[in-house]
Design brief:
Blueprint (H helix, E strand, L loop, with lengths): L10 E4 L2 E4 L6 H9 L4 H8 L3 H13 L1 H35 L4 H19 L1
Helix pairs in contact: 2-3
Protein name: DUF433 domain-containing protein
Organism: Nostoc piscinale CENA21
């Protein structure tokens, strides 16, 4: 049996974008935590990575900062556009739901919830 080559890529391009090999975690996931100023150890724990994986990701980001940052910004832009699309598409639907009178069995639940909230506020 031949040992795995240390030359195997640690960061690969998949349909998700730049991805840590052997995972579905993208460098953009790591970038989210870096932008929020998480330390590498916490990023590793949050994403369920091992030391080699997080170190490879951070090294790749450091070496290819301009490329990764540009792709990260594209991901953020795409996510914002998708969110806006669905918010607009569902706005009318949510307004109709909000305007509907509550169902009779929901009134009992709402009363219990209000009583529970009142009791918590007194504690």
């Amino acid at each position: 049996m031949v040992a795995a080559s240390s030359q195997e890529p640690k960061i690969i391009r998949t349909e998700l974008g730049l991805t840590i090999a052997g995972t579905r975690i993208t460098l953009y996931d790591v970038m989210d935590y870096l932008k929020a100023q998480y330390p590498p150890k916490l990023i590793r724990e949050k994403l369920g990575l091992n030391d080699e994986q997080i170190n490879s990701a951070l090294a790749y980001i450091g070496t290819h900062q301009t490329e990764v940052e540009a792709e990260y910004q594209e991901c953020l832009q795409t996510a914002m556009e998708i969110r806006q699309y669905w918010e607009e598409r569902n706005r009318e639907h949510f307004a109709k739901i909000a305007a509907m009178p509550p169902k009779p069995d929901q009134e009992v639940l709402r009363a219990k919830l209000q009583a529970w909230k009142a009791r918590i506020e007194l504690d």
